Amino acid sequence: MVKDEFICDYSKLSVFFNEFHDFVVKDLPEYGEYYLLELKDGRHTAGEWLPQNYKDKKSKAGKFNRGTGDSVDGEEVVKYHSLGYDLSNCLKKDLDYINNGPRGEGIHSVEISGFKSFKDGDFPGEEQFCLLIMNDGTLAAGRWNSYSEDDGCFIYASALASHSMDKVWAWAPLSSDDIFEREQEAERERLHEEELNKNPQADPDKFIYGTDIDTYYEKACKKLKKTYPWATINQMKKVEPCYDILPLHGNFVFGQDGGTFNGSRIVHEWTDGSTADEFIDFLCKYTKSMVKDSNPEKKFALGYDIDVYLEKAFNKVKKKYTWLTKKIAGSCRYDIRQINGEWEFVREYDDASASICNYGSSEDFIECVADDYRLAALRANTVVSGYKVNFGSVEIHGWHLEQYVVSKLSSGDYKVNVTAGDRVTGGSREFFITPDCFEAKTYDEFLDRYEEIVPGHSFGLYKEDLLKDEGLKKFLGY
User: Fold this and answer.
1) Alpha helix positions (H), 165-301
2) Statement to judge: residues 352 and 439 lie in one domain
3) In terms of domains, do 367 and 463 share one?
4) Domain that holds residue 319
5) For 173, which DSSP code?
6) pLDDT-derived band of residue 424, with 50, 70 and 90 as boundaries?
7) For residue 2, what pLDDT band results from cuts at 50, 70 and 90?
8) Is residue 128 part of a domain?
C-alpha cells in the first residue's frame, strides 16, 4: 500500500483548508459529495450534501448526512470545503503542514491538527466525529463506532456505511457535537456509578438476613415446602432470570443482572416491596409454578429409565406414522440425568451438549418426544409426487399465503406444506394427513377431517376453497 512510503510524522502534522465556499444559493455544493463544514457556532464537522430537491438549484433546503440517522441541517452551515484531495505526495515528504488550496491575506483558513494513529494504540472517543487521512492519502470523515476496546469503524453514511480502521492512516477529532457529548456524559455517569459501587452499603433494616442471596432463597424454599414438600432451591432457580443482591448507585438492592450495555452494568431492581420478608414472599410467588411442576413422583411416574418413556412415545406415533422405525426415532436422543442435584429429562445434541426439558409430568415429556418422532418420520419419508393447490391472493393475519403443496410420500401417505410471509419475514409448516382422514367415504367428509389438521382460519384455504380444486381431489385419490 502507499502508506508504507509515507514518512510524514502525523503527530506533528497540520492540515490547512483554505478554499471554503460560502453556503449560498449561487454557490451550492454538489449533490452526494462529502465536505468539511463550518457551522454558524464556529464548530467544524463533515457530511454528504443531500438537497431536499436535487432538481431545484435555487434552494438551500437540505441536509448534510453524517451517518445513519445522523445529519446536519443546511440552515446550520455557513461554509463548506471539498475533501476531494490526494495528499499522498505530501505524506512522502517530511512536512509539518499541508495546504489544501493557496493561503493568503483575507483567505478563510481552518487548521486541523492533533492527528493520531491506531498503530500507537490511540482510539477516538465513542461517537466522536473525525477527519481521516486514508492509507491511499485521500481525505474522509466519519463517526467512531467501537466493536470492542481495540476494534471499530468510522460510520460516514446511511445503512451504517463505514471506513474500517485498517483503511485509516491517521485521524484527528473534529468539533464536539450533541451525539458525542451525550456519549461523554454517559461515560461520566458510568465511571461515577462504578466508583459508587466499589464499596456498596447495605440498609440494615432491609437486609436483615445479610447480603447472601442464597439465604433468601433458602427461607423462601422453606415456606414453599409447606405446600410442596419436594421443593428445592435448584428448582426455584430454574425460573430465570434469577434474583440476586447487586450494587446499584452505591447501595445493595434485590434485583436481576441484566448484563452490560456500553460498558455499564444493567440492574433491574426489585421494587414490589421494601423489606426482606416481602422479598422472600415475592420469591415464593415468582418460583411457585416451577416448583409445583417439579414433583418427582408426577414427573418421573414411570421411573428413571429413559427407554420406558421413549418406548411409549414411539408406540404412540407408530399407530399413525406406520413407517416409523427405531432407527428413524434414534435421531432424537434423550436421557435422564442428575443436574445440580435434580433429576432431569434432557435432550442430547450432536456436539455432545444437552438441554433440560422442563416438563412437569411424564405425559408432557412423552408428548414432547412424540412430536420430535413425528417430525423425524416425515423427514425420513421421501416425496414421490406433489400438487400445488391453486389459490389467488390469500391473506392470513397480515401474512400472505405463498405456497400450499400436498405431497404423496413413498409410504403411500400424504403430507401438506404451507408457506406464508409478509415483507419482512415468513415461515413454513408441515402437516401429516393421518390415515383416518382417508377412511372417509366421500371427499366432502374427507375435507371435514382434513380441516381439523390444517384449519382454514389458520392457513387461508377453507373447505369450500379446496372443494373447487378438481386437481387436488384427483391427486388425493377421490
Assistant:
1) 178-196, 213-225, 233-236, 276-292, 296-299
2) no
3) no
4) 298-380
5) E
6) confident
7) low
8) yes
